[in-house]
Design a protein that fits this description.
Distance between the termini: 94 Å
CATH topology of one domain: Rossmann fold
Number of helices: 47
Number of strands: 8
CATH architecture of one domain: 3-Layer(aba) Sandwich
Largest sheet: 5 strands, parallel
Strand content: under 5%
């Protein structure tokens, strides 16, 4: 009786789907199709059936598969692909090129990120060269794939859309553990529709009966079907194994496999047990080296294992696979402990002699309980993975290095400093994969060991990276500063370590916008660390927010030039990011509109997607600020939806989406700005939270909630005042003035501006100062001094126009219209309203801004009965001025003032001065 069904049962819908995708690929419209299901569900069988159909349709078929442990080896699955290509004469040259490229030394290409990017780009080009005809590439067991392989496959999925290339991968849906590289990769590709996913369900009772009949060649009795179905749970592999056992149906799959293994000859059974220590896939030469048996004996054993469906040959027969990983697992688990240890030791020695990958050798030595020999190979493999930015693999290998180091030390104690070095390296890799809690623990242990061993300098040297991790975990400024300052005495006279501590202090202070301290420490560090790109970027950014724009922009542009020339892509992208985003914040919009697209294009080229999307979010902010509201909404939405920009991109995009909705959709604006405020508040950084608070203040004003607007403005002021900030404070000046004028009156507005103005003038950032003329103009207008208000508002309008700031620039036109209307200049007032409508670009202007302008009068409503001079007198009277004070203000005699007041009373039909104030208030509200 055959072990496998000659026909595929219960998968017709999936075969039809694959058939459609093959047809599309033949028309140069390929894709990535993922087949998901639990272990033993039949993914391999379905993949084999798809490959057969593809070959029958004229496709070239290339197969690659992963094995347990491959997740620790950078490009393991790509290496298998190269080996498969090399076996086919038509693609042998490409396979050779791929394998040579994987083993080439890329150090001369720049930093590890650049090395990895160029490697992936070269591999993509090589796969492109394969797909000159309709091609199917299958990728089996992606749950064991490494990061670099998944990176390549994800990019291939995008390219396949315009190639005659179908990519089909399988993975175990029950093994998507949190730290498995496949998990986030699969979510991103499926969500962004770069991949299609189909799931293999378990077989029904009817399908199980059909499969049993196909295997046995006969219809089996219902009790037999029930027994197998109940134990197999509809999993095809289990059905096959249970059915292959004669007599009573075993309780578990392992029992079934071992029952079949007992029927093997002693040589084949021993060979299978030996092969099981090598994993799901095993190399023939390595197996021969371990056993030491004659070739004829090994060939005979493999032939029997293949005939009994335990293993199957791969390619040219130089390697074999167990028919399923679960079969290998059952055989491996049946080995006695000492026998298993002995076999792993022989495997490690043979692999070492044959030059196998360091990760494989270290794994074998560890399983052989020979930690001293495992340790150096684990460190070597981890270092190699880190050099390719394969941080997940590197972290796992450093963990192995720690385990084996500890085990070796327990048998023959070694120096603790070695453990500290490994812990520090592990912490760096954990930080790179955002496992900050684990990185913190590793740094903490490394620091403790250094201190206990009297290694004060080494202890101080790891503080900058440790503090950076602690910042992400929520440590406040005071704690971070204290830790770094405590490291300065520990560094002694070592200039480099001291400089790096000062550089870290500069970065800490910059994030909290304590700019004077940041610059002081930055200059200390620069005196030693000449041309340090990261440090120069920090200092350049500090100079910008201190108002020293020419120095800051020049330094950042120089960093970009130097970093690009040196192939330091991370540093170049960071400098682009800081330059463009700073210009966005500092109202240098023309520079931002040059710098941000250039930075985005660079980040695209070097595939720094976090930086790319952050800059895109800031470009969306610039678009909103300069009046392109729809363009801003679209770009911010794209940056938000992509999901690869991180929390800072999300916050910035939410700011923009909130601003873009201020005038038309208050509910959407409130939702976006509230989320941004919550996220920014959790980070505790002014630059993340203050823009959201300002948006909420504006929204409250537009909704007529003056008290809430004042509260938000006071939040923003307090946060900026705490660090002497001006760059995030400036928009609050006008918003706060409006809020206090409508909610409390001119005196409260004057007090507000008296607190805000010193902070803005102290920094004297050019793009922020025009808000003061605007705010003072509003106060003068509210107090009836239209002449002074007119001058101030004209200056503010010129400033916002020159800076191309759309929001305040539109509002100030309506403020000028209100001033002209009160000054009895109806023609000018109408022109200002028309200019505001043109600047607004369509839709209704905010009612708050229109108040007191000609556009705010109801149809047919009469204009004010007072003359322009009478209006001036009335406003001063309403403000509580005596006749003598009014006379001094307007440079007229007290008798003339008294006459004006009598005329006002007569025209308004009132008898008391307080009623004049009431009439003015009703006019302003209208």
């Amino acid at each position: 009786m055959a072990l496998s069904s000659p026909v595929l049962i219960g998968r017709s819908d999936l075969l039809d789907l694959a058939g459609r995708r093959l047809a599309e690929a033949a028309r140069s419209s390929g894709e990535l199709l993922l087949l998901a299901g639990e272990a033993g569900i039949g993914k391999t069988r379905l993949l084999r059936e798809i490959a057969g159909r593809a070959a029958g349709s004229g496709f070239a078929v290339i197969r690659a598969s992963a094995a347990p442990g491959d997740a620790e080896v950078a490009a393991a699955l790509v290496t298998d692909l190269g080996a498969q290509l090399r076996r086919d004469p038509a693609t042998a040259q490409i396979g050779d090129q791929m394998l040579r490229r994987l083993t080439a030394d890329g150090k001369e290409m720049g930093d590890p990120d650049r090395q990895r990017r160029l490697l992936v780009a070269d591999l993509l080009d090589l796969v492109d060269a394969v797909a000159v005809r309709p091609t199917l590439i299958t990728w089996e067991d992606l749950h064991w794939a490494d990061e670099l392989t998944l990176d390549l496959l994800g990019r291939l999925a995008v390219r396949a859309r315009s190639l005659p290339l179908l990519l089909v991968g399988t993975y175990r849906s029950d093994e998507l553990y949190p730290r498995v590289p496949l998990r986030a990769w699969r979510t991103r590709l499926v969500t962004q529709r770069h991949a299609e996913e189909a799931r293999l369900p378990r077989l029904s009772r009817a399908d199980t009966a059909a499969m049993m009949a196909a295997i046995s060649g006969d219809t089996l009795p219902a009790y037999a079907v029930s027994a197998v179905f109940e134990r197999s749970d509809g999993i095809p592999l289990h059905v096959e194994e249970f059915l292959a056992v004669t007599g009573r149906v075993p309780d578990t799959l392992a029992d079934a496999v071992l029952s079949r293994a007992e029927q093997l000859g002693s040589g084949a059974r021993e060979l299978a047990a030996t092969a099981s220590v090598l994993g799901r896939s095993f190399d023939l030469d390595l197996l021969a080296a371990i056993t030491g048996d004659a070739p004829g004996t090994i060939d005979a054993g493999l032939r029997e294992l293949a005939e009994r469906f335990f293993v199957q040959a791969r390619g040219d027969g130089s390697a074999f696979d167990f028919r399923h990983a679960l079969i290998r697992d059952a055989l491996y688990a049946d080995l006695t402990p000492l026998r298993r240890r002995e076999l792993h030791g022989r495997a490690a020695e043979a692999a070492e002699a044959a030059g196998f990958a360091a990760a494989f050798i270290s794994d074998q030595y560890e399983r052989a309980q020979r930690p001293a020999e495992a340790f150096p190979y684990a460190v070597s493999a981890a270092t190699e993975a880190a050099s390719l930015s394969a941080h997940q693999e590197a972290a796992e290998l450093y963990r192995r290095a720690l385990r084996t180091l500890d085990q070796a030390a327990s048998r023959a104690p070694g120096p603790a400093v070695s453990r500290a070095a490994v812990l520090t390296a592990l912490a760096g890799e954990l930080a790179a994969i955002d496992d900050n809690a684990a990185a913190d623990r590793a740094y903490s242990q490394a620091h403790r060991i250094r201190v206990e061993d009297g290694e004060r300098l080494a202890a101080a040297a790891l503080l900058p990276e440790w503090v950076a991790v602690r910042h992400l975990l929520g440590d406040g400024l005071d704690r971070r500063v204290a830790v770094l300052r405590a490291g300065l005495p520990e560094a002694g006279d070592d200039p480099v370590v001291r400089a790096r501590l000062h550089a870290a202090l500069a970065a800490v202070y910059m994030l909290d916008r304590r700019l004077t301290e940041a610059l002081d420490h930055g200059e200390h560090a620069r005196a030693v660390l000449n041309n340090d790109l990261d440090l120069d970027t920090t200092v350049g950014s500090v100079l910008l927010f201190l108002g020293r724009l020419d120095e800051g922009f020049t330094l950042l542009e120089d960093v970009i030039t130097r970093a690009v020339a040196a192939g330091r892509e991370r540093q170049a992208a960071r400098a682009h990011r800081m330059l463009g985003s700073s210009a966005s914040v500092l109202v240098e919009y023309e520079r931002a509109q040059r710098a941000l697209p250039a930075g985005i294009a660079y980040a695209d080229r070097v595939e720094r997607f976090n930086d790319r999307h952050y800059m895109a979010a800031h470009l969306a902010h610039v678009r909103w600020a300069t009046g392109d509201v729809e363009g801003a909404r679209s770009l911010a939405g794209s940056a938000l939806a992509d999901g690869r920009g991180g929390i800072t991109t999300r916050i910035t995009a939410l700011h923009v989406l909130g601003y873009a909705a201020l005038a038309r959709d208050h509910a959407a604006a409130r939702a976006a700005l509230t989320e941004a405020a919550e996220l920014g508040g959790a980070m505790g950084e002014l630059q993340r939270v203050s823009p959201a608070w300002w948006g909420l203040a504006e929204l409250s004003l537009l909704d007529g909630e003056q008290a809430a607007a004042i509260d938000w403005c006071e939040h923003g002021f307090a946060a900026s005042a705490a660090v002497g900030d001006a760059s995030y404070l400036f928009p609050y000046a006008v918003t706060g003035a409006r809020a206090y004028l409508t909610g409390s009156g001119p005196s409260a507005a004057r007090d507000w501006l008296a607190r805000v103005e010193p902070l803005l003038t102290a920094r004297a950032i050019p793009g922020t100062l025009g808000c003061l003329d605007h705010a003072w103009g509003l106060i003068e207008l509210a107090e009836g001094r239209t002449g002074r208000a007119r001058v101030l508002l004209e200056r503010a309008a010129a400033f916002w126009g020159e800076r191309r700031r759309f929001w305040e620039g539109t509002a100030v036109l309506l403020d000028q219209a209100r001033c002209a209307h009160r000054s009895r200049r109806p023609g000018a007032a109408t022109e200002f309203v028309a200019a505001a409508r043109e600047a607004w670009g369509g839709g209704e202007l905010p009612r708050l801004w229109l108040a007191g302008t000609p556009s705010d009068l109801p149809a047919g409503a009469a204009a004010s009965p007072l003359t322009a001079r009478e209006l001036e007198v009335a406003r001063l009277v309403a403000a509580g001025r005596t006749d003598r004070e009014v006379a001094g203000e307007l440079v007229i005699s007290p008798r003339t003032v008294s006459a004006h007041v009598e005329h006002i009373r007569t025209k308004l039909g009132v008898s008391r001065r307080a009623q004049i104030a009431g009439w003015l208030a009703s006019m302003d509200r209208s």
